[in-house]
Amino acid sequence: MKLTGKWVLITGASSGFGAAAAAAFAREGAHVIIGARRMDKLNETATAARNQGAASVAAHPLDVASTPSVEAFVQWIRQLTPRIDILINNAGGALGLDPVVSGKDADWEGMVQSNFLGLLRMSRAVIPLLPHHDGAWILNVGSVAGHGVYEGGAAYCGVKAGERSVTQALRLELNGTGIRVGSLDPGLAETEFSLTRFAGDTARAAKVYAGVQALQAADIADAMVWMATRPAHVCIDEIVIKPTDQAAFHKVHRRPSN
Ligand SMILES: NC(=O)c1ccc[n+]([C@@H]2O[C@H](COP(=O)([O-])OP(=O)(O)OC[C@H]3O[C@@H](n4cnc5c(N)ncnc54)[C@H](OP(=O)(O)O)[C@@H]3O)[C@@H](O)[C@H]2O)c1
Questions:
Q1: From the candidates 73, 137, 156, 209, which is the catalytic residue?
Q2: What is the mean pLDDT of residues 65-76?
């Protein structure tokens, strides 16, 4: 399926996968609509996407943790276009790495709001804009954390397991409409993810990627475009992408630093 002239909506596009996806779909000639909370960074993404040759680019503040924000965002979209062809539910991330015994309410609530309820809110608001039988697609960004658990990851792994459940339920609910639904579940990827997880502690975030050839945001964006461009009758339900260096959570090959 060609993406030229298709309307692509990407949440969490102010950095990482979302920003890279905006550039990648722009290169395909799509109309790119992006949302996130940090408008300064979102505007940088918009400029980069325009430079990549998008049919059009529009950016607007979005907090997926807030129903009024999601509703205002979709009202704004309706003034731009009556249809969205592709919804990429990417906004989210991890907050903290505490074991349950010392976990913080704010971190747990933040993760549930953005990764899980945000996904439900955005899907509910945008499904009415998705055309039937024309290759429309909902892509949810999950994680390898949704396929297993690690110490300190109870809440994050829980919400990413929840993402898989939402994806599978949507797939059932939308069967017969021609709308495709899938999950893209990355492993270790070098974005602002760890900086956010560790509340801006750059040294701790850097350690996560030390000596490892981690995935880059562009690797994930590349996969998104591949998934989106399959023929309309082909739905990639779920895809897991990890760095070659990461065989499992606890099995990451690290090169000694020199
Ligand atoms: N990097 C990894 O290793 C990895 C692996 C597997 C899955 N993931 C998942 O991939 C997705 C993207 O993460 P990333 O790695 O690209 O990290 P990132 O660089 O930190 O990007 C996260 C994006 O989500 C946005 N966001 C967070 N909460 C939001 C909210 N309430 N409303 C709107 N936007 C929100 C952020 O924008 P604002 O702060 O400006 O709102 C930012 O644009 C996340 O769902 C994450 O869980 C990441």
A1: 156
A2: 98
**Residue located via tokens 């059009």:** 56
End-to-end distance of the chain based on CA atoms, in angstroms? 46
CA distance 192 to 16: 6
pLDDT of residue 81: 98
Domains, the chain, with CATH or none: 7-252 (3.40.50.720)
Q: Which residues contact 158 (CB under 8 A, 6 or more apart)?
A: none
Largest CA distance in the chain: 56
What are the tokens at 149?
């658990």
Token pair in block for residue 60: 């607007």
Q: Give me the count of residues in the chain.
A: 258
Pairing of strands 86-89, 7-11: parallel
**Ligand 1 test: best mutation among 17, 113, 139, 245, most atoms within 8 Å of CB?**
17
